[in-house]
Amino acid sequence: MEALEAKNFEESGDCESCKVCREDFVIGVEVTLMPCLHIFHKGCIVVWLGSRYT
Length: 54
Hints:
alpha+beta, 3-stranded antiparallel beta sheet, single chain, Herpes Virus-1
């Protein structure tokens, strides 16, 4: 999970909310773009992935 690349969210026409917590992204918030091209809040995806692989 440490290899997940985080970046700051910039306005996107396709993805407006995190699929884990369902909250809308705010410009500048830290997000992670997964290989599947879905975008998640960094904290949400780290917790979700951790709960799936324990």
